[in-house]
Design goal:
DNA binding, Trna Endonuclease, Chain: A, domain 1, alpha/beta, 253 residues, Restrct_endonuc_IV_Mrr, two-stranded parallel ribbon, restriction endodeoxyribonuclease activity, elongated, Type_IV_Methyl-Rstrct_Enzyme, 5-stranded mixed β-sheet
């Protein structure tokens, strides 16, 4: 899904850090601050005596000035990106849990395409993939998610098509991008269905087609985990109850 727009360097940095884990954004902010602070704290360069020294003097002064302002500005952007990353992580988890709880067949259609991509990304995370949300802001052949697992690269294209089947052209396009980028595999994920031609093209290739039914199966795998945690909690509380009753009985003697 293409969302092309011009952004400033500050916005690009914010978005880049937001794609990383929150702890990584905080670490980058700290490292950047101390590095730039060390440059900004250096003694001011001596005034040039000869004209040939003017270039080095201007360059040194410029770097020192940039470092002085950058030591505050850049870490602040990185911290903002870390906060955005944490918020998005909570949002993805909430989307996954809500979809897992839903019994409605339209659970995948009642969310925006941005939320659909976040939901798909979280489903892959739960399967052990490292996920980077591409955002579709670059000429990348419509790649929405970039996955890594065991040093292998996988590409994902998301299609939240409510009324149409995903055709062979979409699948063929992703396969071409996979070859160009040297990806080990790829996924086309839709909330709907695929055409027969699309399924025939993907057959026998390192390309998997995930329709709405399969995706909901992935998502609903969250429910047993939640139930297991709740059951374990109840079991632990039940195991403690006899011990507490025994202590109370001893105290009453």
């Amino acid at each position: 899904m293409g969302r092309n727009k011009k952004t400033s360097p500050a916005e690009d940095l914010l978005e880049f850090v937001a794609m990383l884990p929150a702890w990584a954004g905080i670490a980058i902010a700290a490292i950047t601050y101390f590095w730039l602070h060390s440059i900004a704290s250096q003694p001011a360069p001596a005034a040039p005596v000869q004209p040939a020294q003017m270039g080095a003097y201007v360059t040194s002064t410029l770097w020192k000035t940039l470092a002085y302002y950058g030591q505050f500005f850049i870490p602040l952007i990185c911290l903002g990106g870390a906060a955005l990353s944490a918020w998005r992580r909570k949002q993805r988890e909430a989307l996954l849990v809500n979809a897992a709880k839903s019994e409605a067949a339209s659970a995948l259609d009642d969310i925006s395409w941005q939320e659909f991509e976040m939901l798909v990304g979280e489903a892959f995370r739960r399967q052990g993939y490292q996920v980077m949300e591409n955002g579709g802001s670059r000429p990348d052949g419509g790649i929405d998610l970039i996955l890594r697992k065991e040093d292998e690269l996988f590409l994902v294209q998301c299609k939240q098509w409510k009324a149409f089947r995903v055709g062979v052209d979409v699948v063929r396009e992703l396969y071409g991008v996979m070859a160009a980028k040297g990806a080990a595999g790829g996924y086309v994920v839709t909330s709907g269905l695929f055409t027969e031609a699309a399924m025939r093209f993907a057959k026998g290739r390192n390309l998997k087609l995930i329709d709405g039914r399969v995706l909901m199966g992935w998502i609903r795998q969250v429910k047993p985990i939640q139930k297991a945690i709740a059951t374990s909690k109840v079991a632990n509380e039940s195991a403690l109850t006899p011990e507490l009753d025994t202590k109370a009985a001893i105290q009453n003697l």
